[in-house]
């Protein structure tokens, strides 16, 4: 199963639908898993005790964001994430559990809770509530 590899990229044609970092992932150093042109960058950092990241700030650089990507941190529990193409056709699904992280990059998604779940979500803002979403099935 992909979980043993620690990370997985789910594609549909040329589009990356999602990138998953399972709780078993353990690359050394700084590793970004997203293409450079993604509006949301997802990286995994692992450093030994004593490593120092020099104090810094990030420059103000105007960026144009054309679509929302979101990162979900599964804090506890278990859920299934269903993946859809842009037209609402079902593609695939993955079960995620405590400690897993997923970047939802393209296409659509739905989530079914399998065991009481706590999820931390990070995405570009501001969040516009239901005005931010286009549901496939009403």
What does the model show?
The chain is mostly beta strands and 138 residues long. It has one domain (2-47, 66-132): Jelly Rolls. It has strands spanning 7-12, 15-21, 29-32, 43-46, 70-84, 90-97, 101-104, 108-123. The strands form two sheets. Strands 1, 2, 5, 6, 7 and 8 form a six-stranded antiparallel β-sheet that branches. Strand 1 (7-12) and strand 2 (15-21) form a beta hairpin. The protein is globular and about 50 Å long. The N and C termini lie far apart (34 Å). The model has no long low-confidence stretch (mean pLDDT 90).
CATH class, named Mainly Beta
Second rung of CATH, namely the architecture: Sandwich
The main pleated sheet reads as: 6 strands, antiparallel
The number of distinct structural domains comes to 1
Q: What class do helices, strands and sheet pairing give?
A: mainly beta
CATH fold-level name:
Jelly Rolls
Uncertain segments are none
Total of DSSP H or I helical runs spanning 4+ residues: 0
What attributes does this structure have?
two-stranded antiparallel ribbon; 46% strand; mainly beta; Jelly Rolls; 138 residues; single chain; six-stranded antiparallel beta sheet; 0% helix
Concise synopsis of the structure shown:
The protein has 138 residues and is mainly β. It is built from no helices and eight strands. The chain has a single domain, classed as Jelly Rolls (Sandwich).
